[in-house]
Each structure stands twice: as structure tokens, then as C-alpha cells.
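This section describes the prediction task in plain terms. A model, or a person checking by hand, is given the sequence of a single protein chain and must write out its three-dimensional structure as a string of C-alpha cells. No templates, partner chains or ligands are provided. The sample shown here is typical of the held-out split.
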Amino acid sequence: MSAYYDLYQNPPAQGKKEEVLPSFHARIVSCGTVDTDAIARDIEANTSFTYGDVVGVLGCLQQELIKRLSDGYQVNLDGLGIFSAGLKCSPVTDKKEVRSRDVQLSDIHFRPAAKLKRNLKRDMRLTRNPNSSANGIMPMEKAIDKVLEYLTEHNCIDRQEVSRLTGYKKVRAVSALNTWRAQGILIRHGYGKAVIYFNIKKSR
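The expected answer:
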């Protein structure tokens, strides 16, 4: 299986007065998100570990990670990478103005291991997104064709599937779905994360 990529135009460099040819950079086209449940089931299918074993160990790993980071350690998971805590505090001109209560966790940093990057580079097969357009964004006309084609074989579609089919990120996918609803092409059911969309013609 290949990972899709697409080319996106770089913004023009500030301060450049002379005309220059546009440059592009490559980015992965997301196929969605794989969660713990899917990973645990795959591991169960390919090893002697049970689904419960995998979920249990991952839960324990999360707790150990929190504990070690809370104690000020970096956590190095062999072959995966190093986790560390990042801090923040309000800007001050005198160190004496900072109290412990003013310093807070800002983020958790991850530095991938060289082995992880080597193995990923070895195993990853990249293919140009077949739905690519000139600027890396699928036109709305082509996107709705993809969605309606999907709905000929499925009862409904959600935002994540629209993103997978079109390469649209969340905001663009939601905007497109709202446009198609306003045009009377799709109808929406559900709330929050349970929102799904139907082809109005099929639902009548």
C-alpha cells in the first residue's frame, strides 16, 4: 500500500520585488486517523497477544509516561523516540518575579529516533495523489462527484471519509459539506462527532 502525497505552492518570499517562478513543497495527503482500537486489533491478529493485553499495556505505558515526565525525566522508548515536557511562563525582566505557580506545562515534545526514521523511509511507498489539481486542492465539482460516487455504494458519509476521498483538511471539508447541503445535494443527520450525510435524492 502507498501513501499519497500532493504538491502545494509556497507563499511568495517577502521583500522579493522581481518576478520569480512559483515553488512547491510536498505534503502527505491524510487518509484519516488510526486509533488505539484499530492498532490493538491488528496486533492481536498478527501476534499471540490478546486485544485486552495490548490495550492494557498501552494504558500502563501512558501512565508511566505521565509519571516519569511529571518527575522531570525524559522518556526514551527504544526505536520510537524521546518524550520530554515543555514549560511556559509569562515574560519577565527579573527572574525574582517568577514563582513556581507561574510556570506551567506548555507541551509534550517528541523527538523521533533515528531508527524509526530509517525504517519508515525504507518501508514508505509514496504515490502522487491521483485527485491532484494544479494547486494541490481538488476542485469542488470533482470533490462532489467523488462523494456522490461513494454514496452510490454506501448509505451515508462522514466528514472524515470526505477528507480521505478529497484530500481536504477538516475546515475545508466541513465548508464543502455545508455548501453541498445549501445546494440541496446532501442532507445532514446527527450532532457533534456523530454527524453523517446522505444523498438527498436517495433519501427521498
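For orientation: Residues 51-70 form the longest helix (20 residues).
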